[in-house]
């Protein structure tokens, strides 16, 4: 009785998983493929006297593709193996014990093909790209944002003041950092109230809608309490560290039905996604978060301080935004019927000089965020925000950044500091 069935034609409603595998010394790919399918569906390390024929027939995973060249296997899972609308349960099968088995040396979950029957059971983003553009008034161009820096430590009043400066300098978005929650020097309630006052003031002064991504990451019941506060104060967004909070919290939070968009920060993802031979790809995680229903998701920049190649970041952006993501060398074709597109967030080591490259790579349905790249501007936060806006203006008008900087002091000063550019 083998889990390998290369003649098996996956059904439309099978969930498919693409693995890259390094078998242990002395074992071949077929050996590891067998163990992966067994441990991720119905089996264990030995044959079982308790294995009913119908369990074997109806619920086992089937290895339908083995590529010895690329050391990859593809496995088909019947949907009956999983509980409906329980993403944690699905992952406990396809992304659970198998990573720790001795019968693989390395194992990477490259991609998941979500069948349309499963897609229909999940909400997807409440707002998505259109909805966020709708309530923010940012129509065509990328969104510009900053993260208050230092990431931790500013007292509440200073946090709110820096946020005000970023907004009046021209940024659309101010975000709490991923590890700013409710510390003694900047308690959540205080920060929310003071920063929203500054948001209102900046909106009046600029005539532009402004967005505050307040971080509600906390034990789940506390997340709900904070979300209620945020909603009562009329803020349109919450931010959640989704990997750290867990799939169950993200799925539950989306189902709470708050009338607020979810900005998904992915801190901790690299513990799972970074090793090219082991773990889970950011592409696969991004698909799960789109299905669960975040509105914004960090995906990397290719040009900033965080790892992630241009090809990978671009592929993830496509997966988040296309209604059908075509198959690639390491990506299933994926239909997203009825699931809204997600705003891709490019952040991490960015400054105004990066904006042309980021827009070139990822297009306009993105959020470009810079923390150090704004608050590290030699003339301070307002100038840093202006420099970001000027850089985007240059891109939208197809003017080379250096030329545009000639007539825009804040951008020039940013390029002098961050890119060592020389001006006459
Ligand atoms: C960026 C950032 C973001 C990273 C996360 C930080 O600050 O606030 O958390 O972008 O990385 O704390 O590093 P800087 P990613 O602009 O000062 O780098 O978006 O890849 O998940
Ligand atoms: Mg951060």
Topology:
Blueprint: E1 14-22, H1 29-39, H2 53-59, E2 62-67, E3 72-78, H3 87-94, E4 106-113, H4 116-119, H5 128-136, E5 143-147, H6 156-168, E6 173-175, H7 188-206, E7 211-213, H8 220-232, E8 237-241, H9 242-245, H10 247-255, E9 261-265, H11 269-273, E10 279-280, H12 282-292, E11 296-298, H13 310-321, E12 324-325, E13 334-335, E14 343-347, H14 355-362, E15 366-369, H15 372-375, H16 381-396, H17 401-406, H18 409-419
Parallel strand pairs: 4-10, 5-6, 5-15, 6-7, 8-9, 9-11, 11-14, 14-15
Antiparallel strand pairs: 1-3, 1-4, 2-3, 12-13
The structure holds 2-carboxyarabinitol-1,5-diphosphate and magnesium ion.
2-carboxyarabinitol-1,5-diphosphate is lined by residues 147, 149, 151, 177-178, 266, 298, 300, 305-306, 347-350, 370-373.
């Amino acid at each position: 009785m083998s889990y390998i069935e290369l003649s098996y034609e996956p059904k439309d409603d099978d969930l498919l998983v693409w693995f890259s595998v390094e078998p242990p010394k002395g074992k071949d790919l077929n050996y590891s493929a067998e163990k992966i399918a067994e441990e991720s569906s119905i089996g264990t390390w030995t044959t079982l006297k308790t294995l009913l024929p119908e369990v074997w027939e109806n619920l086992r995973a089937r290895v339908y593709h083995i590529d010895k060249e690329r050391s990859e296997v593809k496995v088909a899972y019947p949907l009956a193996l999983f509980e409906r609308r329980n993403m944690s349960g699905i992952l406990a099968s396809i992304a659970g014990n198998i990573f720790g088995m001795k019968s693989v040396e390395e194992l990477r979950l490259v991609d998941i093909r979500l069948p349309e029957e499963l897609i229909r059971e999940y909400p997807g983003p409440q707002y998505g790209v259109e909805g966020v553009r709708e309530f923010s008034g940012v129509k065509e161009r990328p969104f510009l944002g900053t993260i208050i820096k230092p990431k931790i430590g500013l007292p509440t009043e200073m946090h709110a003041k820096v946020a005000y400066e970023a907004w009046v300098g021209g940024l659309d978005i101010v975000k709490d950092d991923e590890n700013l929650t409710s510390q003694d020097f900047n308690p959540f309630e205080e920060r929310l109230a003071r920063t929203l006052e500054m948001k209102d003031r900046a909106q009046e002064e600029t005539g532009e809608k402004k967005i505050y991504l307040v971080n509600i990451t906390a034990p789940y019941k506390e997340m709900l309490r904070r979300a209620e506060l945020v909603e009562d104060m009329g803020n349109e967004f919450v931010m959640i560290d989704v990997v750290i909070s867990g799939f169950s919290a993200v799925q539950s939070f989306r189902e709470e039905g708050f009338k607020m968009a979810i900005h998904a920060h992915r801190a901790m993802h690299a513990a799972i996604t970074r090793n090219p031979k082991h773990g889970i790809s950011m592409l696969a995680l991004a698909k799960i978060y789109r299905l669960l229903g975040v509105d914004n998701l960090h995906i990397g920049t290719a040009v900033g301080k965080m790892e992630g190649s241009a090809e990978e970041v671009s592929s993830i952006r496509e997966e988040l935004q296309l209604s059908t993501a075509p198959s690639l060398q390491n990506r299933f074709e994926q239909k997203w019927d009825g699931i809204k597109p997600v705003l891709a967030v490019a952040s991490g080591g960015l400054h105004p000089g990066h904006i042309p490259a980021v827009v070139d790579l990822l297009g306009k349905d993105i959020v470009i965020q810079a923390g150090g790249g704004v608050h590290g501007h030699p003339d301070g936060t307002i100038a840093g925000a202006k420099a970001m806006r000027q850089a985007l203006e240059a891109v939208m008008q197809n003017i080379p950044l250096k030329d545009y900087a000639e007539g825009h002091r804040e951008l020039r000063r940013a390029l002098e500091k961050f890119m060592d550019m020389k001006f006459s």
